[in-house]
């Protein structure tokens, strides 16, 4: 889409309300005060100052004005606006746009704003193709992304650009946008009225996304006609279902699953179910949630309640067989079980401590009495000699050293006194004492 196409669509009376209300000057931009502060890169681009040729990466959630800001830079600075979508454009398209921009700059002394939407979806080779144009100033690149650029944009392109973080619009910002749309000539031009209850609801379902609020208002106003009143019931009927803002490939994905895991770890089943609902309503793969529950069952609960791993594993299998929407009940079952269970990370800490010793070189050799003795010549080497078969001694625990000499006395599994681990931990301690000869032969190692 070119800038001309964008203006033409915005001028059509039948264009979507969100398009018609897109700001046409900096004065109409709501929110983003920090990004547009005097002396900021964006302000310099808009005013054509000394930093007017800098390239910018706009990072923020949907509906915060990334596309709007890019078009404003083009309009205010007199540059030609060219847009590439990372979803449809290939390396050939990128190079063609750059070649055209370079010719325009050389022959007409006119700059180009190259807007790349969803730049995080560009492959490395596509992002590499942008580098010469950015480095030589053939284009002013404005790239938009909902993902952290530190992880989604290649380092050479990142180092040649300034990252500008855009914040979700506040409730007051959204309300301002909605009320302006009701009265503005480009909006509803006062053809309908919207009561405060409806505005409050529209603000709430917008979740900081102005485009979502305007789209809902557009649908609601169409349902009442000229002279009508948009009330709460009208908006609810038009919207039917408030979509949850959640980018399965972006930061929202990681933030919500993090909230879910930490709520379960914190033993708050209500918060855990809230985040589970947000993921499922946004279309998250239920198998992903099930996998995370299986990991959590061992990492955060472990021997404090071993049955949670069984529940999580069964849930994963059931989810794979049944699918949505019924899978929501199974995942909720596993989530509540995990949230209410006593917590321990002793198993997690134990294996990581053991791995740390191995990686640092604290390995040693396997004790002779533990080595494989089932091949010809093993006996001559002393393999397996003096090995005590545990089943042949009272209590089934033999006095023996199982760790390599260099690790003798090392303790990796340090049980807590939480839930079932208190019992299992006592058993583990008694077993260790028995192996090391610290309790009598007649004392049963399995006493709890």
Structure description:
The protein has 448 residues and is of the alpha/beta class. Helices cover 50% and strands 7% of the residues. The protein is built from 19 helices and seven strands. It has helices at residues 3-11, 17-20, 41-47, 66-77, 91-108, 124-136, 149-152, 155-159, 171-183, 196-206, 210-224, 232-239, 251-265, 269-281, 286-301, 307-322, 327-340, 346-359, 421-435, and strands at residues 55-59, 80-85, 112-117, 140-145, 161-165, 193-194, 229-230. The longest helix has 18 residues, at 91-108. The protein starts with a helix and ends in a 13-residue tail after the last helix.
Descriptive tags:
two-stranded parallel sheet, disordered N terminus, 448 residues, five-stranded parallel β-sheet, elongated, alpha/beta
- The order of strands across the largest sheet is 2-3-4-1-5
What profile does the largest beta sheet have? Answer: 5 strands, parallel
How many helices does DSSP assign? Answer: 19
Overall morphology: elongated
Please state the structural category.
alpha/beta
Question: Distance between termini?
Answer: 73 Å
Order of helices and strands: HHHEHEHEHEHHEHEHHEHHHHHHHH
Number of strands: 7
Helix content: 40-55%
Q: Could you list the spans in which at least 5 consecutive residues all have pLDDT below 50?
A: 1-7, 439-448
Query: Which whole number gives the mean pLDDT?
Result: 83
What is the CA-based Rg, rounded? 32 Å
